[in-house]
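Appendix B, record 7
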Amino acid sequence: MGERVRSDREGTALNRSLRTWASRVLVCLALVATNSIFVIPAVDAAVPKCNGQKATVRGTNGADTLTGTPKKDVIAGRGGKDTIKGLGGRDVLCGGKGADRILGGKGRDRLYGGPGSDTCSLKEAVRRSCEKAPGATSTSDADQDGVEARSDNCPGVSNASQSDQDGDGSGDSCDDDRDGDGDANSADNCADASNSDQADADRDGAGDVCDTDDDNDGVADTSDSCPNAAGSSSNAGCPTSGSGGGGSDTDGDGDSDDDDDNDGDTIENGDDNCPNSANKDQEDLDDDDEGDVCDRDKDGDGDDNARDNCDEDPNEDQDDLDNDGIGDECDRDIDGDGAEANNGTDNCPTVANADQANGDADAQGDACDDDEDNDGEPDESDNCPDTANPDQFNADEEAEEEAGEAPAGDECDEDDDNDGVPDETPAGTQLDNCRTVPNEDQLNTEIPPNDLGGANSGDACDFDSDNDGFDEENDNCPDNANPDQADTDDDDTGDACDPDDDNDGMTDADEGTNGSDPKRPESEPEGEEDGISDGSADPDGDDGPIRQGPDNCPTVNNPDQENSNPEDEMDDPEGDACDDEDNDGLPEGQDNCPTVANGPEQDDNQGDNDDDGQGDACDTDDDNDNLSDADETSGMRNVFGPRDSTDPFEEDTDGDGRNDGEETSPGGDCVVTDPNDTDTDDDGLEDAEDPNPIVPVPGAPGCPEGP
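Structure tokens (predicted):
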């Protein structure tokens, strides 16, 4: 039975030797963290930066130990020989001017040395990266051991031998775990002999691999026939009798050869899982056939009960987050913040947060919530980790980068545009009139009546300077309010600011003077367009139906563009259809006396007595009797002597059937009659019926000579 138990123990030791680096590194870091300090500079001190980012944890000019939190930290040392350590999160760690030791934590950290002879230390079991900035490794020999820093495996500790027993690149003189077994030198029971299981049979503090007397019986292991069972030198280091009474013990296993129940627990040795330790209940937590009362590792996790921080709960890694001596596996309050994790009351079971703050009211407390504000952006990359801003807008991002400042999104930035003017007053009233555009002068030229101030009202950011509801980029008249955005000629210049709305080459002002329509390139009435542009332009191009102007009568349909006064075209460019030479209110094309005023303002108003198309005002024979109005009104002399004037508006003044011209001018009959006498010869017959109304006119052309 003794040989079997020993074999089991050897197997357990083998299992222990296979444990990963990660478990020991975490334990080591946790132990070191208990002696660390958080150094925060005075509020008036300049905030140091690490790789361009403001430090959240920073040192003094002395020798500091700077330790981060479980979240992302930016830690920067200053002067002195500092020790800088990250914990959780993706940390950025920077040394200062001294010879610093920079240790990564659990996250994927970035480590940067300073001007001194610094050491970047990482463990392969934890996935991280180490980038040594310029100056991290000096070419000098700071420790004066005869080995230049760039080649020295302990550049800050003198070690001329450069011994490195575990071959990890860190010399024994400065290696926290010089035998490379995962146990820090300070906690390693064999600091110079690799023994990841830390087996110590006699529990004397010296591990078996380096203890010359494992059972502490005074017989050196090299001479002890029973090195794991205390005996006497007279019996080659083996026990002479078992615990059950006298008799020999020839196999050296401590059991008397003639006792069937060494421990007196009523269970025979052959069936007893602890034959030398009374345990009637035979409890065996790890089912390894070794009872709990005699099993040095009753939970079977590879750690002796005496060193196991959870001896009844397997926890090979021995994690103890709060360093209270109780392993996380069996600790009701893993992070030591007073809230019990095992019963579900701690919203961050592995991160200390006594206040249990939970800004976004989800299942995770702020201290361990990767997205504290629950906006979908992880805190690590969230420019407002405590304020929800899923859009991540940051107006002054470039300015922050240039200044080496950590990015702050607009939602949580007190000065979004970094112009020195706070966005709001403490009471929450809008202060900066351009929150996202720098304008230190706060110039606002549109303060009443057009602009009442407030957000985006300053000139630098007022994208709707005319306040018509359209920002300047989309406003076809950015300086003229035109909420309808009317654009008659579709030239992207709104009518409100377009000098030629219809793009006909004639300005709106001129069209207003001329009486043409500024919004139609052909100003004739609908349906009467003549196809000629009002102005000199061709608004629809060569292929369009509108011909290039200018139209000499833009409001009158005159496709022929006739102008009876071409010699006066410079002074009188209007076409006949619209020219009003006599200024009587009627254009020539409509005026029956274009050169004599006879419009609506005159008495005759286009009077045309004889309907010959020529107005009375300019017609020399208004009654069309072949006798001029002047002759009719002058009472001209004829063969009958002086006569009365005739009516120029009546072609037959005396109504005798012969018009006045026929009566006063000898025709083919070579006679004249009196236009004022219906019976010139007084023969009882009216002149028109009288075959001989009067004698022939002597001397008239074609007529015989008179007496």
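Remarks on this record: The chain is about 10% helix and 5% strand. Residues 47 and 629 are 112 Å apart (CA to CA).
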